[in-house]
Amino acid sequence: MKLLVTEEQTIVDYILDLDARGFPMHLPAIKDLADSLLAARHRDPVGPNWPRAFIRRRPELKMKFNRKYDYRRALCEDPELVQGWFRLQGNKEWVTSVVCVSAAGWAIPPFVIFQGKHHLSAWYKEDSLPRDWVIGVSENGWTTNELGLKWLEHFNRHTKERTIGAHRLLILDGHKSHNSVEF
């Protein structure tokens, strides 16, 4: 057994806690959690089948589909409805904008993720991009665990001064980049 009994129980508790909050963990995230615990002790990572085997041997855990397929989402994936986008001229790269708006109505500057390996300032006209915007890149233009952590730092930087009291409430949508161990 690679993981200690206490480490396995910690993983179970974490999975159940996230699930109770409405954020069920996926198998790759469970593997990442186990691997990070092992890395802290300079041990080799678990194998690719470990998460399924772990869930099977833990009676308090089970795998299931957690929600039914939403009708509105199905409409957005209807090929007939999205054909117009494919007929548009020009580049069709994916761009993600991570935004955060407070209950009082103020927003932190955008965190924009483009498809690519490196961010080039030549992508913009000189001084056309506000200095407080953050630009990130990923292979497909989507957020990653690393970019999710950078966004959290961006959030902290822009909300710390506005905080009244010791705590801030951040409500997340459950994307896997918000459930990483580092986040």
Task: Note down, in words, how this protein is organized.
The protein is mainly alpha-helical and 183 residues long. The chain has 2 domains: 1-89, no CATH class; 96-178, no CATH class. Helices cover 37% and strands 7% of the residues. The chain has 6 helices and 3 strands; from the N terminus they run αααααβββα. The protein has helices at residues 5-20, 27-40, 50-57, 71-76, 79-87, 145-159, and strands at residues 96-98, 111-115, 134-138. It has a 3-stranded mixed beta sheet, with helices on one face. Helix 1 (5-20) runs antiparallel to helix 2 (27-40). The two termini are 27 Å apart.
Strand content: 5-15%
Strand order in the largest sheet: 1-2-3
- Tell me about the largest β-sheet: 3 strands, mixed
Distance between the termini: 27 Å
Overall pLDDT confidence: 84
Helix content: 25-40%
Show unreliable segments: none
How many domain modules?
A: 2
Rg over CA atoms, rounded to whole Å, is: 20 Å
**Record field, number of beta strands:** 3
Give the count of helical stretches.
6
Structural class: mainly alpha
Order of helices and strands: HHHHHEEEH
Shape: globular
InterPro entries: CenT-Element_Derived, DDE_SF_endonuclease_dom, HTH_CenpB_DNA-bd_dom
Protein name: HTH CENPB-type domain-containing protein
Keywords: DNA-binding
Organism: Pyrenophora teres f. teres (strain 0-1) (Barley net blotch fungus)
